[in-house]
Amino acid sequence: MDPNSDAQDVPRCDLCETAIVHNYCDFCHVNLCTPCIGKHISDGYDKHKIVPFQERRSTLIYPQCRIHQNKTCELQCKDCNIFVCSTCTASKQHKGHNFVEVTEVYNEKKEIIKKDTKELENHISPTYEEIALDLEKQLANLDGRYEKLTTTMSKQGEQWHREIDFVINKMKTEIGEIKVKHRDILKKHLDEIKQIQSLIKQTFLDLRKIEKSTDVSPTIEYSSKIRQFRKLPPKVQVSLPTFIPKPIDRKQLYSLYGQITPLSTSRKENVLSLNQPTTSARDLLDKPEHVATIQTTYGKLRSVSCLNEDKIWASGQKNDIRCFNIRGVLLQTIKLALGYFPNDIAKDSDGNLLYTLWKTGTVSIVKNGQTEALIRLQGWTLSQLCVTSTGNILVTMFSYDETQSKVVRYSGSTEKQSIQYDSRGKPLYSGNASIKYITENRNHDICVADSEAGAVVVVNYDGKLKWRYTGPPSVTKNKQFQPRGITTDSQRHILTTDYFSEYILREL
Prior knowledge:
Layout: E1 23-25, E2 30-32, H1 37-41, E3 50-52, E4 75-77, E5 82-84, E6 99-101, H2 102-160, H3 165-212, H4 216-220, H5 226-230, E7 235-239, E8 243-245, H6 253-257, E9 258-260, E10 264-268, H7 281-286, E11 301-306, E12 311-316, E13 320-325, E14 330-335, E15 344-347, E16 353-357, E17 362-367, E18 370-376, E19 380-387, E20 393-399, E21 405-411, E22 414-419, E23 436-440, E24 446-450, E25 455-459, E26 465-469, E27 483-488, E28 494-498, E29 504-507
Antiparallel strand pairs: 1-2, 1-3, 4-5, 4-6, 7-10, 8-9, 11-12, 12-13, 13-14, 15-16, 16-17, 17-18, 19-20, 20-21, 21-22, 23-24, 24-25, 25-26, 27-28, 28-29
Helix pairs in contact: 2-3
């Protein structure tokens, strides 16, 4: 039996191991009875914190200052983003800096951890479980559904007798191969889902551990993965092949016997539902909420990219890129070569900063504080960029002679797709050096605001033209529609601004 517990599991003193516990050292995490308190603190160590047992684990454990011995860091420097003690605040290194109490940051992160834990437990994890069950059900029913196909083929084969047996066998082989592909597709997606489930489970366990801990460092260093988990994988929809019987003709047995449609796989967007009240598009548009005003000090602000709910990157016509928090405090500055300023900035799926430089023809990435060129162009000049929901990079560019424009999709530094012409061989975008803003909507369509052409051009994932929007009806005929900037909202609407009007336009 555990010496610290009796049959009723009454906590015992960790020192004498017999008396019922009344107190607790919140620094050493030791159970104490009243007589043993003196023994415990007799070592002269001044960090002991004796509290009633019911109030245990209520004292925060502050990190030790790395510069000043025997000092604890109860403040955080917002400019340097490090823990500091009271002595550090008066040093030259932190002169004029802004400080915040560690308890404030700690409590904010604790709330985020509680929220993330609840969302993982109540919404994300059950949703992934449903996806996995659905895939397992499809796998369980796979043989039966394919058996129906082969049975239909056999009935047709009975009418053709011996002379068409070889045709039947050949088609059954094709069905078997398709079934293998079908199973592989479902199994692959199921494996991906279970891998994510495993990561969610581990994250959940880590959150529980942090939630119960009073250690400041892991709590404040915690980085939420909820946004990553919210982005559910596309739902795999694999269409079963069908068998289409044809009239018997011995001269064309194989071609007339029937046709097996190829395996069709589509990915339907799988949106996480948090059981929140439905909000109409009109509600979103008519009731905007002003969250904050951030002074970037750029004379001409060119691009803004949200790093997370609390931080943004901003760039202008200066040789740097700046990171601000929601309160407008400058957190970080990325310096560029003198005379260079970025055309556009974006954040990749891992939270790394991306930016384009037309002078060098490069897309650069800032990762772990280090900057490197990710994409280098020759013969083309970079303009704008965006990152897709699948982590690809879409870049607009124009030729050196300013007669051609196109959109190119990259996976990392590898070119995967080039979009330049429609099905009739005509250019999709105006051939000039004017800025062509780009974004992706939730249908995976590629949307470009081509101001010089006076149009918003939308193509699907494969680069096929879906539609071209040339502006709203206007009584002013001498002013061409000139879209500047483009984005999308949660309702799949495309938003842009018209240079000659005072409105933000919405296209369905």
